[in-house]
Amino acid sequence: MPYPEPSSPEATAVGKANRRTGTKPEVELRRALHATGLRFRKDLLIRAGGTRTRADVVFPKQRLAVFVDGCFWHVCPEHFHMPKTNLGYWEPKLQANIERDARVSKGLSADGWQVVRCWEHVGVDDAVRVVAAALVGLGHVRAGELLAAASPVVAPPP
Questions:
Q1: How many helices (H) and strands (E) does the chain have?
Q2: Which of 29, 47, 81, 88 falls 20 to 30 Å from 11 in CA-CA distance?
Q3: Residues 6+ apart with CB under 8 A from 23
């Protein structure tokens, strides 16, 4: 897909400022998981199911890959708005992202990994609960203790 001419210098600056890793929602989730005592790898390369990917948070022993998906880049059904300029670039680019996400999730699952995808707009407490519940399902004792203790970070929703 050809790279379009930027619509303005501001658009160029915004595009260059986008990070591949270390986004605010991702860092907040990692900080909250770490505060609960959970230990994990970040931005770890996983080769599975004929695919290569870097998950945002990885629990290798439990084979759990956590992705924090941005609402724009991964086309959130609640918050996504298609850009008004360069549609010929954005439509196929974003569709390719959706297809890649599905291919990665399917490949990891086929190779015995559990995949958790959290939207960036989901509150950090809710995201921690989802990750902890997935770990409990995979037999992670510490995560089970966290949920049982109902600490403020992983307290059940009201």
A1: 5, 4
A2: 29
A3: 68, 70, 120
Residue with tokens 């994990």: 40
Joined tokens for residue 6: 């930027």
**Residues facing residue 119 across a β-bridge:** 69
Q: Which amino acid is at 63?
A: R
Q: Would you state the pLDDT for residue 108?
A: 96
pLDDT at 88: 86
Q: Which residue blocks in 1-157 are alpha helix, DSSP H?
A: 9-17, 24-35, 87-110, 124-137, 141-149
Q: How far separated are the first and last CA of the chain, in Å rounded? A: 47
Statement: residue 146 has pLDDT above 90: no
| pTM, rounded to two decimals | 0.82
